[in-house]
Predict the structure.
Amino acid sequence: MLRDIWVAKSAKGFTVMTERRSMASVKSFPPVLTRQLQARQKAVELFAIRGFGQVSMRDLAAHLGIHAGSLYNHFESKESLLFEVIEELYETLLVNAQRQLSRNKNGTAKLNALLQAHIALHEQKGAYFQVAEHESRNLCTQHQERIQQLRQRYEGYFLTLLSDTGSHSPNLRAAVQSMVSILNNIPVWLDRTPLSKTERVKLMLETAQGSIAWALGMQRTA
């Protein structure tokens, strides 16, 4: 069973694999869209560095190199920009998850692929993860509910793969929620260490495994 295989693999260690992903460069997009993507990326980086609440519209305009009045040509509001950024991240995670699940037949391979795809996305959207994890409290209630729905859908892929019976215990739910938060945060922490890229990826995978293995063990003894 998948649960037995996963616990066994967790105890023995994990073979780190990397996935090559080909993505279109922003240069291939129309000029207007390219400018919008570049502006969003710069805004996300500023939110990640200074915090959403500490960035004024004037600060944002200065960072983007445009007049404050021109901001509304790019974004409806600062809050709507924050929502779009976090929504984009979770929609990307969901698309990646669906792609990995369709490629892999074995349950354990699917689980491993989901973890690897999550970690690989950090190379492209590291600031997005940081903002999503720490600034979502600044969203309005409606936007927070939308993000929560997307995150729960994403966590649902892990729950389905990890549950043999189709029922999800509170321990398993808590472990998956914790694991996603760890995966969202840990790359930022590890960037400050002298570990190599391969060592960082291995540690992230092993940390995620630990949360899941604990939950599966608790289910067995329940």
Remarks:
- Helices lie at 2-12, 31-50, 57-64, 78-103, 107-135, 141-162, 170-190, 197-221.
